C-alpha cells in the first residue's frame, strides 16, 4: 500500500554538500538564498537562452492566433474572402467560425497526441515533428485562394506549433533550476506576445505591397521560427524526467548539465527528480501511474483541476476579445488606422509581460494570479459600462482601457491603495504570463505531459466555445454588442475569482518532491506557503549519514 504519511522515498545520489540542507525548513532554501536575485539570473543566463530557443514554436502560436483578427483589417484580404455589408467589407460569421475551428481542432488534437508521442519517443523528437508540420501548414496557407484552403493550412500549421506549445512548458519545467522555474515558464507567454507583436509589425509593414501580397507575406514569415528550431534539433537536451522514467539516469545527468551549465549540482537534481518519480509511482495502487485516468484521481486529480481552472480563467476574463479581436474591433468601431493602434497595443502588452519576470519568483504565483484576476474582472465591468455610451469620447476611453487591460502598472495588483486606472487590468503581467508557471510545475513528474495535455484540451474547448459565439456578438450585421460584450465575460469571471482565491496554492521555490508530499497530504491551498516538508529534510540527511558511514 502506498505511504501517505508525507515521508519522501529514499533519495539516491544526493550531493554530499550537507550544509545546503541544514537550514531546510518549510521547504525553503538556506537563509539569504530564498529570493531570486539579478546575480543568480546573470550567472544562469545559459538557462534563459535555452528557454528562448525551446519556446520558438510558441512565437508561432501567438502569431497564428492573432492573424485572423488583424487580416480582417487588411482590405485585399477582405476583398478576396469577404463580402460587403452596409458599405463595409466583412468576413462572414460562418467563415470566421470555419477559420477559428481550424485553430481549435489543431490545438485540441496536438494537445492529445503530444502526451502520447512525447512519452513514446521523447520531447526532442516530438518538437521535430511539430516543426515539420508547422512549416508545411504555413506554405499551404501562403498559396490559399479559398476559405477552405486557408482552413487546411491553418489546421496543419496549428497542429505543428500546438505540439511545441503543449510541450514547451513541460520540457522547460523538467530542466530549469527550482529558483528560476517561475521566470523560465513565464517566458512562454513572452514569446506568444512577441509573436502577436511581430504579426502586427509584419502586417503593418506589408501595407505598401500590391494586392494579395499584403496578406500572403505576413503568413509566410511564420516559417522562420520552426525553421530555426529545426536547425538546432541535434543540440537540444532531452527531458531528464523522461530519461529517468526510461531508466537512462546517466543521460538525464548529461541533459541537466547541458541545459544548466557545468556548475549546476547535477547529482542533487537527478536525485530529487528520481525520488519524485518514485514517490508518484508508490502513490498509485495499481502502479499504472502513466494511465490517463490517474490524472483525475486523488491528489493528481486536484493538480489537474488547478491547472485547468487557471487556464480556463484566461477565457472567462475575455482574452479572446481583447487580444484576438483587438484590431478588428478598432476598425468596426471606426478608429482611424487600426493596424497601427493594434501594433502599439501589442508592444505595450509585451512590456507588460516583462513586468512579470522579476515578480513571479519574488512575490509568488498565487498573489499575482488571484489579485490580477480580480483587477481584470473589475476592468471588464468598467469597459462594458463605458460601452453603453455612444460618443466619440466614450470610444476613445474604450480603446485606451482595452490597451491598458493588457498591461500592468508596476504597483497595481499588489497595492490596494493604488487609485484610478493604473489599478485596472494586468493580463500580460499577471494571468497571461504566470499561468504557464502553474501549468509547468503543478503536475507530478510522471503525469506532467498528460496532465498538461488535458489542460490544453480543456482550455481549447473553452476557447472554441468563445470563438464560435464571438462573431455573432461583435459583427455589425449581427448583435453588434461592441464593448458591451465585457458584461458577459464579467458574469463568468466573478465565480472564477472566488475559486482561485480559495483553491490556488503557492508553489514558489518548491521542489517537485516537496510538491508531491504536500499534494499527497492534501494540504489546503492557503497553507502551502507555510507548510514544513520535514519528510524531505529528514530523508536527505539520513541518506548523507549513510554515505558518511560508508
TrEMBL record:
**Any keyword Oxidoreductase?**
no
Q: Which residues form the Major facilitator superfamily (MFS) profile domain?
A: 50-508
One GO MF term on file is: carbohydrate:proton symporter activity
Got a GO cellular component term for this one? membrane
Q: Is the keyword Transmembrane helix assigned to this protein? A: yes
InterPro entries listed in its UniProt record: MFS_dom, MFS_sugar_transport-like, MFS_Sugar_Transporters, MFS_trans_sf, Sugar/inositol_transpt, Sugar_transporter_CS
Q: What is this protein called?
A: Related to MFS alpha-glucoside transporter
Amino acid at each position: 500500500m502506498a505511504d501517505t504519511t508525507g515521508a519522501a522515498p529514499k533519495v539516491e545520489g544526493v550531493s554530499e554538500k550537507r550544509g545546503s540542507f541544514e537550514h531546510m525548513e518549510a521547504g525553503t532554501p538556506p537563509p539569504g538564498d530564498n529570493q531570486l536575485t539579478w546575480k543568480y539570473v546573470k550567472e544562469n543566463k545559459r538557462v534563459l537562452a535555452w528557454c528562448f530557443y525551446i519556446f520558438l514554436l510558441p512565437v508561432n502560436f501567438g502569431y497564428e492566433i492573432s492573424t485572423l483578427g488583424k487580416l480582417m483589417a487588411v482590405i485585399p484580404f477582405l476583398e478576396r474572402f469577404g463580402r460587403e455589408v452596409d458599405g463595409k467589407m466583412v468576413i462572414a460569421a460562418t467563415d470566421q467560425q470555419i477559420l477559428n475551428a481550424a485553430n481549435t481542432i489543431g490545438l485540441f488534437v496536438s494537445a492529445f497526441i503530444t502526451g502520447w508521442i512525447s512519452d513514446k519517443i521523447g520531447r526532442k523528437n516530438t518538437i521535430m515533428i511539430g516543426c515539420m508540420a508547422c512549416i508545411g501548414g504555413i506554405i499551404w496557407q501562403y498559396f490559399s485562394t479559398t476559405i477552405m484552403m486557408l482552413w487546411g493550412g491553418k489546421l496543419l500549421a496549428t497542429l505543428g506549433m500546438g505540439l511545441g506549445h503543449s510541450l514547451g512548458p513541460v520540457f522547460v519545467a523538467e530542466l530549469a533550476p527550482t529558483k528560476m522555474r517561475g521566470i523560465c515558464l513565464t517566458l512562454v507567454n513572452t514569446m506568444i506576445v512577441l509573436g502577436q507583436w511581430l504579426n502586427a509589425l509584419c502586417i503593418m509593414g506589408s501595407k505598401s505591397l500590391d494586392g494579395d501580397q499584403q496578406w500572403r507575406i505576413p503568413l509566410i514569415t511564420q516559417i522562420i521560427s520552426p525553421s530555426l528550431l529545426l536547425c538546432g534539433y541535434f543540440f537540444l537536451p532531452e527531458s531528464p524526467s523522461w530519461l529517468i522514467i526510461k531508466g537512462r539516469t546517466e543521460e538525464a545527468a548529461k541533459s541537466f548539465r547541458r541545459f544548466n551549465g557545468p556548475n549546476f549540482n547535477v547529482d542533487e537534481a537527478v536525485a530529487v527528480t528520481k525520488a519524485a518519480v518514485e514517490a508518484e509511482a508508490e502513490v498509485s495502487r495499481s502502479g499504472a501511474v502513466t494511465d490517463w485516468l490517474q490524472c483525475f484521481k486523488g491528489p493528481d486529480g486536484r493538480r489537474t483541476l488547478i491547472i485547468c481552472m487557471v487556464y480556463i480563467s484566461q477565457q472567462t476574463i475575455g482574452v479572446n476579445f481583447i487580444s484576438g479581436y483587438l484590431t478588428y474591433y478598432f476598425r468596426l468601431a471606426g478608429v482611424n488606422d487600426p493596424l497601427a493602434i493594434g501594433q502599439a497595443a501589442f508592444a505595450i502588452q509585451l512590456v507588460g509581460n516583462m513586468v512579470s519576470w522579476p515578480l513571479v519568483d519574488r512575490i509568488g504565483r498565487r498573489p499575482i494570479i488571484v489579485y490580477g484576476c480580480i483587477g481584470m474582472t473589475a476592468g471588464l465591468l468598467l469597459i462594458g459600462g463605458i460601452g453603453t455610451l455612444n460618443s466619440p469620447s466614450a470610444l476613445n476611453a474604450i480603446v485606451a482601457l482595452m490597451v491598458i487591460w493588457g498591461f500592468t502598472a508596476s504597483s497595481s495588483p499588489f497595492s490596494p491603495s493604488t487609485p484610478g486606472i493604473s489599478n485596472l487590468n494586468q493580463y500580460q503581467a499577471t494571468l497571461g504570463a504566470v499561468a504557464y508557471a502553474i501549468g509547468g510545475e503543478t503536475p507530478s513528474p510522471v503525469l506532467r505531459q498528460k496532465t498538461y495535455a488535458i489542460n490544453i484540451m480543456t482550455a481549447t474547448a473553452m476557447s472554441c466555445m468563445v470563438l464560435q459565439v464571438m462573431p455573432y456578438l461583435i459583427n455589425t450585421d449581427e448583435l453588434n454588442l461592441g464593448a458591451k460584450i465585457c458584461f458577459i465575460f464579467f458574469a463568468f469571471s466573478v465565480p472564477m475569482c472566488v475559486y482561485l482565491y480559495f483553491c490556488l496554492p503557492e508553489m514558489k521555490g518548491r521542489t517537485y518532491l516537496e510538491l508531491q508530499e504536500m499534494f499527497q497530504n492534501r494540504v489546503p491551498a492557503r497553507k502551502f506557503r507555510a507548510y514544513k516538508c520535514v519528510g524531505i529534510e529528514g530523508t536527505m540527511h539520513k541518506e548523507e549519514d549513510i554515505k558518511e558511514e560508508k
